[in-house]
Amino acid sequence: YQIGDEPAAMAALVQMAQGLAAVRAHDPDALVYVNFSVAPDELADMLEYYGTTTSGDVISYDRYSRSNSTYNSLEQFRAAGLRFGLPYWAYLRSYRGPGSTDSSPSDMRWDVYRHATYGFTGYSWFVYQMTLNNDPFIEGVSLFAQTGDFAAGKTPAFAVASGLNVELVNLGRTLTQRTSTDVRYVAATNSDIGKAIA
């Protein structure tokens, strides 16, 4: 059960934590969690509260940007997952935002593998297959031909997401047995290239 979504402040998280505890009391074996965004100023404190005070099973977040700053978010959520001994999951972008086009296959692949590189082990494509209700952040869906109908025709992006899901299933056992602690870009020097060729 995902309890609430993207708490904007500590007060909202505390309220969601009460809901989490109520679900846990009703269904002790359920998998329960809160999904975070990267926007709140109090995010570090909120993750600390979540990890030390609630009985959430997973740390989940969403960040749909493709900017370089996404790497800071990946590090922050990986650090929280490692610190509290919780798996960390992510929502993946599969919608069209204002003024943007659908994600290309390489955009979708990058979204999956940047998270896998940082040790994320759970993924949900953000389908948004419902009436858009004038949401200013959502302009359209990517995986279906139209909104509001799960029987609508599937787009080429659906096939890309399906293929990436299969790749993640195949990598899943390895990903869950390893711990990502650092990701770096180390530029090669001419002498490194020479050694690799030799």
Concise account of the structure shown:
Helix content is about 45%, strand content about 15%. With about 200 residues, the protein is of the alpha/beta class. It has a 4-stranded parallel beta sheet.
Characterize the structure shown.
By secondary structure, this protein is of the alpha/beta class. Helix content is 43%, strand content 13%. The chain has six helices and six strands; from the N terminus they run H-E-H-E-H-E-E-H-E-E-H-H. It has helices at residues 10-26, 43-53, 70-84, 105-117, 156-177, 190-197; strands at 33-37, 58-62, 88-93, 95-96, 122-126, 140-141. It has a four-stranded parallel β-sheet with strand order 1-2-3-5. The chain has a two-stranded antiparallel sheet with strand order 4-6. Helix 3 (70-84) links the parallel strand 2 and strand 3 (88-93). Helix 2 runs parallel beside helix 3 and helix 4 packs parallel to helix 5. It is globular, with a radius of gyration of 19 Å. 26% of the residues are buried. The mean pLDDT is 86.
Question: Secondary structure elements and their pairing?
Answer:
Blueprint: H1 10-26, E1 33-37, H2 43-53, E2 58-62, H3 70-84, E3 88-93, E4 95-96, H4 105-117, E5 122-126, E6 140-141, H5 156-177, H6 190-197
Parallel strand pairs: 1-2, 2-3, 3-5
Antiparallel strand pairs: 4-6
Helix pairs in contact: 2-3, 4-5
